[in-house]
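Dear Dr. L.,

I hope this message finds you well. Following up on our conversation about the binding site, I have prepared a predicted three-dimensional model of the protein together with zinc ion. For your records, I am including the exact sequence and ligand specification that went into the calculation, followed by the structure tokens. Please feel free to forward this to your student if that is useful.
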Amino acid sequence: MPTMRQTYTVTVPEDPPAAAFPFIKQEMRRKGSMSGSVLVSTFVGLLINQAKNSKSAQGLVGLKNLGNTCFMNSILQCLSNTHSLRDYCLHNSHRRDLNNNSRTNTALMEFAKLIQTMWSSTSSEAVSPSEFKTQIQRYAPRFVGYQQDAQEFLRFLLDGLHNEVNRVTVRPRGTVEDFDHLDEEKGKKMWSKYLEREDSKIVLFVGQLKSSLTCSHCGFCSTVFDPFWDLSLPIAKKGYGEVSLMDCMRLFTKEDVLDGDEKPTCYRCKTRRRCTKKFTIQKFPKILVLLKRFSEARRTSKLSTFVNFPMKDLDLREFSSDNSYNLYAVSNHSGTTMGGHYTAYCRNPNSGEWYTFNDSRVTPMSSSQVRSSDAYVLFYELTSSSRM
Ligand SMILES: [Zn+2]
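The resulting structure of the complex is given below.
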């Protein structure tokens, strides 16, 4: 449905879950005696104020479709439910971090303003992201006019936000190549080099990928470390049974042979050789974004294979160190890559309850409905217990 312009009424439960804020429940019982909304400037003040209104409490607010903007709305809802990013905006911490390279009216300012509106709105009306959209289009006119890819938009947005609050304004010069160390050490060194250049709150989405290329002729192995914002997973194909996210992760990290036209040039042999290539995840990020790779052979078709992914305790120990992740948001895509429609399933960071965000419409859902073959971009958060 590329043109969904109609405005829906926001439907949220009469009594929004407020387990994380027990004091709010008491306030709500007395809501009959409350008069008009009072504008308060503090975060807690906003939360109390919005909770007095039983509709649209705590981020459960829809976003108007401005004409083919469901891809944007879907990603915005996923980010709005990214706990630490939301708080970063609600606490106005981003203002302190805005660097001099950023102009007065920035995409981040608009983004934060939108998040603040979504988390403080006392109206049941859907919010219009038009100012945010205008700002985005100033930087990227390509995100206008027709249906876009949600993942591309996510990466563009995070990269843009990061640049505005990157604490490094003058990037150190010098090469970042040629470390003659063991891989482990080299990985760490490359990561600290990365942080010397890129240091912002948004880096919580960034991990580090190691790619190694081994020459089949002389055995020379060259390794490269690259930061990643998301991992695009190939869909494991099985003759029977269901495909799991772990199958896709294993396929992603499986050794691959580069031969024929794909033969790379070996650094030592100085000629093109048959090589084996392998990806390893050197460093997992706090927020792990995984996505289902669209079929490469036919760009216009998408794989509708159902990939079973865990909601809790995505255990990635076989790929790296002690890591466990919980799912908190999914950007769904239905239809084909040429058209189709995006929605988001998000777990409210305050209540832990799941909701469907379909442009202007917000509806509660059961966590058992979250997994579907429409799941396209998965947002996982590192569990704090495994941080040590
Ligand atoms: Zn070689």
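In brief: The first helix runs from residue 22 to 29.

With kind regards,
A. P.
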